[in-house]
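Sample entry copied in:
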Amino acid sequence: MSLSIRAVLGLSALAVAVVGPVVIAATSEYLAYRSGIYIAAGFAGIAAMALLLLQPLLAAGYLPGIGMRDGRRVHQWVGMTLVAAVVAHVGGLWLTSPPDVVDALLFDSPTPFSNWGVVAMWALFAAATLAALRRKLRIRPPIWRFAHTALATMVVVGSVVHALLIEGTMGTISKVFLCILVLAATGKALSDLRSWAVLKRLGSRH
């Protein structure tokens, strides 16, 4: 299927938004004197932020050349990759500084960004678990969609605040731009998919 010029430009802009922060981070002065494990952990976190931009676009069928059904299949694979990236991010930080990771997991860290990151991590794991057990749990589709969307929203908000509070390898402008795109794409998808409509239906019964 041939793509229009507009679609090609859109995909190109998306590629820049996803790859740009990684390229900029690769030239950061913060990488000096850091261990390979620490650097890998940092880039895993940056990759996770980039993947967050793709998730709402895939779920809502916004990407040209990819239908809603295929988009949601890719959404599942990207979700698993996102989980792997977060595990690599946290695992790498654990190998370089276990006490800091323990403090973060116990919400006892002096750095505010750690708390937001941990909330986003657990919400991501919960969303992924809910997706994996969807058929076994036999939850009604509207209820499942609402729960998955609520958890995904927590992931996005927690991750964005986590990223914005960190002064690290990501360039300031590219980081802010990526976070704005993630929030905008998520908000647009939430509005179009109307996952919250189930609350109105449940409320009307009482």
